[in-house]
Amino acid sequence: MRKVSEKPGSIYCLRDLLEKWGIHEERWSHMSRKWRCVIAKTVSTNEECLDEILEEKPCLLGKELVSEVHKAAGEDGIDLLTKDGNNKLPRKKLAFNSSWGKPGADLIHEDHLTPIDKFSDVLDHESDNPRNLQMFHRNSEDEPRIPILPSLLSWPSFMEEDSVSLDKATRLSQKNALTTWHLDDCGEFVFQTALPVKESRKQNSLIGPNGRPVMKMFFTVPRKAYDMITQDQEQNRNQIFAMLDLWNIPDNHLPSDENDIPLITLCLVEEAGNPLLMYPNLPHTVLTVQDSVLIEERRASLFFLDECVYFVHRGRQSTAPPINYDFFKILAQEESETDKVVNLIENRLATLQPGRMRTRLLNSLKALGDADDVFAISSATQKRVKEITKDCKPDGISLGCDDLIASVKSQKLGVIQNLLQPTTPPKYFAYGHVMGAVVFGPMRTDQQQATLDRKAFAAEFDFLHSGSPKIDEVINALPAGYGTVKTGVAEQTKEDADLLDELF
């Protein structure tokens, strides 16, 4: 029996784990052994959950929070969608193929989407391009008549009381389907669980740390690693996905200092098991281990409005803007609605003693007051917010996204500041792309030198070419820096950005 015996919180070589666990060879055979990972913790109390959240980490929670979901789903979540008259869709939906969003994939075509008119079409086991279908429950007449199971989720009490529900979704996925690196839509928390499946579907399963078959693996990295994962400016410039290829980078193409390489938190979502609470704005890619159905709800927390502000600034970098939920549209347009939120937060502050939660909420309020380029806020309310938050000081927790927002606003095409390991002076590195796969230059303490590295890249290989024998030659000719480089080459693929509102 394949079983996850590794301890959450300990650091492991990601490639070694995937190979040991019997994951498809395509996912680890070309992966660098320098990728380190920790397995996400499973927590049993609100206090333990809060510890993980305030450290900006995803975590798994107690099964009692999703017991009603699993009960309502019955013996098999896949049968729930594909049997008893539910299989036929009222209108065609678009399923992601796993080739969607790979480095080099075109943003403006739909070659890597599959129109389907039945749920069962997602599970085409003769296809070498496995599929995902994510269907949001938005009270449309065109929605399939299936139970809205996300409505039965029980959030941790401290999250449910101070948050706004934004969206609910059901996701059917085929084994080995891959969802590329992305952020969720508006700086919100996402709470999700895998539905039960019958015994005949559990043959040769990988048993997770909580004793049930693993359905999906979420590979997440810290927010500060975003620019290493996805290069929005290059993506916009060429209308091609520009990002790091986790699965195809050799050891000698990663920085020599392990602190310059993002530490991956690996979240293992088990069948009818512990639900996953995803912290906002963590870049993540998702691998489906077995045919499965996940359901989810998305909520914006009043304690974390700074995450929403940061996401808006990220979204402004994209030529294909993400969904903007009604809650945020109203706050962006109506000063009176922003005033109501400020009043809610002020009333909540009155109930909190000095400590982590009060500090967190003060910081959220401060972000709201400072974001007059995001939210509609009157000068009087802004003045009141500044008075309330004037004594807000660090309390051993993250105090928002000011540094990340500043980084987004000051980005230069082709050069990234290393935020994973803050130093004085800061470190920078250049990047280029080959078929959308990122190529990083050496770490520099001189931004001007990193800019020269970028020019050397641009002179010798082209974003749109499938490869260049000069890549390593160019890299080796650069003046020595703090680290080595990483490269990747991917085949060109295509996707239609006009369909993203439907898909996300």
Describe this structure in words.
By secondary structure, this protein is an alpha+beta fold. 27% of the residues lie in helices and 20% in strands. The chain is built from 16 helices and 19 strands. It has helices at residues 14-20, 46-54, 67-73, 77-82, 157-160, 226-229, 232-238, 305-315, 326-333, 335-349, 356-370, 379-388, 402-409, 447-460, 471-477, 500-503; strands at 2-3, 11-13, 36-39, 59-60, 88-97, 113-118, 131-136, 163-173, 178-182, 189-194, 206-207, 214-220, 264-270, 276-278, 284-288, 292-301, 415-417, 428-434, 437-440. The chain has an eight-stranded antiparallel β-sheet. Strands 2-3-13-12-15-9 form a six-stranded mixed β-sheet. It has a three-stranded antiparallel β-sheet with strand order 17-18-19. A hairpin with a 2-residue loop joins strand 18 and strand 19 (437-440). The chain starts with a strand and ends with a helix.
Q: What does this entry show, briefly?
A:
This protein has 504 residues and is an alpha+beta fold. The protein is built from 16 helices and 19 strands.
Helices and strands, with pairings:
Elements: E1 2-3, E2 11-13, H1 14-20, E3 36-39, H2 46-54, E4 59-60, H3 67-73, H4 77-82, E5 88-97, E6 113-118, E7 131-136, H5 157-160, E8 163-173, E9 178-182, E10 189-194, E11 206-207, E12 214-220, H6 226-229, H7 232-238, E13 264-270, E14 276-278, E15 284-288, E16 292-301, H8 305-315, H9 326-333, H10 335-349, H11 356-370, H12 379-388, H13 402-409, E17 415-417, E18 428-434, E19 437-440, H14 447-460, H15 471-477, H16 500-503
Helix pairs in contact: 8-11, 8-13, 9-10, 11-12
